[in-house]
């Protein structure tokens, strides 16, 4: 009987370990969330969100297909009291989400990391600290970047519940899609939906 108890105990431990691995596999940081047609929240209707962080504590991401304005990089930096070495460069400003909507965040390539930087595994990073603006001003910023106002956030289990009820699909993320796609918000959403490989 002892060997049977031992076997059951070992089997239970293995199952718990496998369960933990499967739970880890649900985390979607470094991927795109694509809103389904049924998601009518005005903040997220037909949006595409790059998830920078997703774990048991919740999720953080930035909407990548809602442009709200554009202007000159020098002018933007001047607003923060900073000079620019790349003054003629045009930048587009995007709505990153409803959280901290009075603050600027930058979604960027992983060649920059500094104070306040969040990084997805094998993916892009997000920084909301003034240090990144100072680095950009000095010509030491990331090679690829997208300027955002606000970000998107979910508490523990919230995103998983939204996915379970069909509010979101996920798709692989690529740099070209995030940084170079110049279509309308609707066009980018449609292309991301097609990338998800499902009909909504």
Radius of gyration: 20 Å
* Total domain units: 1
Residue runs with pLDDT of under 50 for 5 or more positions:
1-24
Number of strands: 10
Which topology does CATH recognise? VC0467-like
So what's the overall shape? globular
Instruction: Give the biggest sheet.
Output: 10 strands, mixed
- Through-space gap between termini: 54 Å
Query: Roughly what percent helix?
Result: 25-40%
CATH superfamily: VC0467-like
CATH architecture: 3-Layer(aba) Sandwich
| Run of helices and strands | HEEEEHEEEEHEHEHH
Number of helices: 6
Would you mind describing this structure in some detail?
There is one protein chain. The protein has 200 residues and is of the alpha+beta class. The chain has a single domain, classed as 3-Layer(aba) Sandwich (VC0467-like), CATH 3.40.1740.10. It is built from 6 helices and 10 strands, in the order αββββαββββαβαβαα. Strands 1, 2, 3, 4, 5, 6, 7, 8, 9 and 10 form a 10-stranded mixed sheet that branches. The longest helix is centred in the first third of the chain and has 24 residues, at 2-25. The protein is globular, with a radius of gyration of 20 Å. The protein starts with a helix and ends with a helix. The model is unreliable at 1-24 (pLDDT under 50).
């Amino acid at each position: 009987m002892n060997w049977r108890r031992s076997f059951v105990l070992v089997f239970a431990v293995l199952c718990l370990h496998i369960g933990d691995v499967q739970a880890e596999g649900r985390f979607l940081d470094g991927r795109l969330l694509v809103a389904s047609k049924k998601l009518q929240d005005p903040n997220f209707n037909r949006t595409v969100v790059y998830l920078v962080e997703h774990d048991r504590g919740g999720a953080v991401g930035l909407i990548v297909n809602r442009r709200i304005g554009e202007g000159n990089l020098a002018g933007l930096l001047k607003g923060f009291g900073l000079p620019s070495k790349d003054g003629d460069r045009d930048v587009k400003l995007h709505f990153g989400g409803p959280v901290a909507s009075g603050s600027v965040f930058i979604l960027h390539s992983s060649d920059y990391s500094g104070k306040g930087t969040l990084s997805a595994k094998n993916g892009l990073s997000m920084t909301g600290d003034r240090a990144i603006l100072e680095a950009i001003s000095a010509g030491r910023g990331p090679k690829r970047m997208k300027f955002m106002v606000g970000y998107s956030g979910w508490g523990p289990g919230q995103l998983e519940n939204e996915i379970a009820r069909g509010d979101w699909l996920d798709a692989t993320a690529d740099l070209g899609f995030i940084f170079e796609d110049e279509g309308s918000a609707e066009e980018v959403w449609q292309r991301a939906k097609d990338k998800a490989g499902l009909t909504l």
